[in-house]
Amino acid sequence: MTTPKTAAPKSAESAAPTRQSLKSAQTRGRLIEATIQCLVKVGYSGTTTPLVATEAGLSRGAMLHHFENSATLIRATIVELHERRLRAFRRSSEVTHHDPSAMVGAYWRQVQKPAFVAFQELALAARTNADLAQIMQPLQVEYRERFHAEAFTLFPEWHSAPEQFAQAMALSQTLMEGMAMSLLTGALDEAMVPALLAMLEEKIRALRPA
Known about the structure:
Blueprint: H1 12-15, H2 19-46, H3 49-56, H4 60-66, H5 70-92, H6 100-110, H7 114-125, H8 130-154, H9 162-185, H10 193-207
């Protein structure tokens, strides 16, 4: 039997991204960022591909070269929003001794950004839009699984109390994201924010293993 030939390893030069691939990635990034800005400015129903192209400073034809339709663009945008949330979560875990105050503050700053508003626009629209829900739901499951896996790795001090850890994570996300949405709609007085965040910090300390 003939021994199959082993492919020669790629050189560093051939493995490096080409100028064209870098330019393509930059253009895709511009279109995704433009989509986020449109979602913030006009909501999901108003975010059309011509508007995104205009926001990105590109022709619609150039946009369609990178994203063949709105579904592929929205999917790429959701993936990017998830990646940003995970990166922010990793940064919040880097604070000294995982102090609840610093961590709560880091995540609270994250939910003040346009990316959070854009994601909420998509999440709410998916409730009544079957096509969008079909795109979003599997990505949400994937994100949730990645989030929990990373959280358990990043916070080893909680390994002895996985149930309390899950509660602390769910409470933090639900409360801060709900507060951010309530501020946007005027349902929450901004003066109450510091006290509510302080209450959350104390609850996390109470759940934390000794």
